[in-house]
Design goal:
single chain; alpha/beta; Beta Polymerase, domain 2; 6-stranded mixed sheet; 14% strand; globular
Amino acid sequence: MSEGNSGDVRPAVLNCETPLGQALISMFGSLARELEAENAPPGALRVIVFGGCAVHLYTSHRVSMDVDAEFFSTTLPSEIDVCRLLAELPEEFLDDQTGRLIELTYDLNFSTGLGPLHEDFLERGLRLPTFDSASPLHVFIASPVDIAISKLGRATDQDISDIFALLRTGFILAAEFERLALEAIDCYVGNHEPPTSILKNILQDYLETADDQTF
């Protein structure tokens, strides 16, 4: 296929200095301290963030009230209830654009199984340096391309807007998005036709827009 954002992909950069970014770090910082109090060892819990919070860290094009994240435990003591801890650790932040005070909470219903997901998503995640190797909590942000792929499942208007915002950052090449998304859809347990059709339409619209901007 023709490549709208030609050339090398830009290295993905996280902006955690926004009010939402700071609230997210504070929320996970509280969780890390709880784990330390329970004598959890370094790297006992790994988390990878998807959803609107992850989109915001790459694009700043919108804020989110929910933290969509998947947890992976290696040596976490069985008596530690991570979901309960997160439910007790909301964080407030001020939305710069609206002036509203927003409460950031963990979405207990989130699952990466709700949409297509490439099998190598963990390898592409970007680690937050705030939580170093000595911390019991290691925090990763899903890569832009993996966030975009995950949003092909529900494909609400907001999801599609997020995908376009991620494409416009230059952190994703359209051809790579297409290749990895098709690989993910091929392994998806749901109906393959809707996400495939949505992917095709998004890429067509994006590449047409990119071509128009070259003139």
